[in-house]
Amino acid sequence: MSTEGAQRHIVILGAGVIGMTIAHVISTRYPSKYKITIVARDMPEDFTSQAFASPWAGANWSPFGYEENSYRRELATFNKFWDMQLTGLVHVVPYRIYIPAEPTEEMLYFKELFKFLPPEELPEGMKAGVIFDTITVNPEQYLPWLRLQLLNFGVTFVRRKVQGLDEAADLAGENGIIVNATGLGAKSLIGVEDEKVYPIRGQTIIVHAPGIKERAECFALPLVGVSSDDVTYAIPRPSPDEHVLIGGTYQKHNWDTSVDFTAAQRMWDTAVKYMPALKSEKNSVIRHNVGLRPAREGGARIEVELVSFPVNRDFMYGHSARQTRGTLSVVHAYGFGGTGYQCSWGAAEEAVDLIQSIA
């Protein structure tokens, strides 16, 4: 398996943070065993595309609630990012989370990282709060870094819209392996068509705030009495441009990618209340963002499926359009919702373990 001719071909569908991190783990664990091709309609440099989630993410690490598989992936990812500080890609900042109800054990499943805030430091309407050191990355730096790493490893990127697993199977060839990291695309990808997949709409504001990252903390709190879909957070980003990301919304099953300026005003008003340094005349709004987090009922899917080919619809392609016959293994890795970056390294390691288990 050490020569290129003997390499098994892995075709990864999706060039978001999950797909590229899987490629990175494969490349570093098994540098000569596999030939890797990433196939995607949207590439890491497509920062204005709303067709995939990775460019729009807050890309910080913040506990959402306990689930055994997520806990394992999040812990592995936190440790990986923590060790990457010297790259300059990872920014470590204090993070405050305010809680509108009495905290439960499930809410505090990373409690070894937390310090509880005294009552006098809690915003009005909040019952509890914690502070801890966390990490954040800037997608506009991190995604190109991942891509460059992969190119140096010999990974091939192909820009192509793939409508079904048959096309991926043709690219993978005999005895190839397909990795499905298509996010929301798993809902319509022929051969997968997962009806459990749904979007969670997120809206944010990018602010140019010179010098703020040296003195500002991240924070997150619900907007009590406004909407259960709203949560305000502010995240200073590692960037020579000194940006702060302000969010946001958490609107399940909402496919709208247009900017809601009423919601944007609510975010801004709350953010400047708890981060007064944002009011400086030196600061300016760079842009308003809307992205769709790729969620899935029941949680993320990481598993191997043995698929029989062809799976295409004859009326779409014609009887002879697809070449692959027989079975190939498909490793699914999608449905992470708002935890794509937060779970990325742990999820990638899990997916690569599955790839290695395929005979």
Search tags:
single chain; 6-stranded mixed beta sheet; FAD; FAD dependent oxidoreductase domain-containing protein; transmembrane helix
Walk me through what this model shows:
The chain is an alpha/beta fold and 359 residues long. The protein has one domain: 3-Layer(aba) Sandwich (Rossmann fold). Helix content is 25%, strand content 30%. The chain contains 7 helices and 15 strands. It has helices at residues 17-29, 68-83, 139-153, 165-172, 261-274, 314-317, 340-357, and strands spanning 8-13, 34-40, 90-99, 115-116, 128-137, 156-159, 177-180, 197-208, 218-222, 230-236, 243-249, 251-252, 284-296, 301-309, 326-334. Strands 3, 4, 5, 8, 9, 10, 11, 12 and 13 form a 9-stranded mixed β-sheet that branches. The protein has a 6-stranded mixed β-sheet with strand order 6-2-1-7-15-14, sandwiched between helices. The longest helix is centred in the C-terminal third of the chain and has 18 residues, at 340-357. The chain is elongated. 45% of the residues are buried. Residues 223-227 have low confidence and may be disordered.
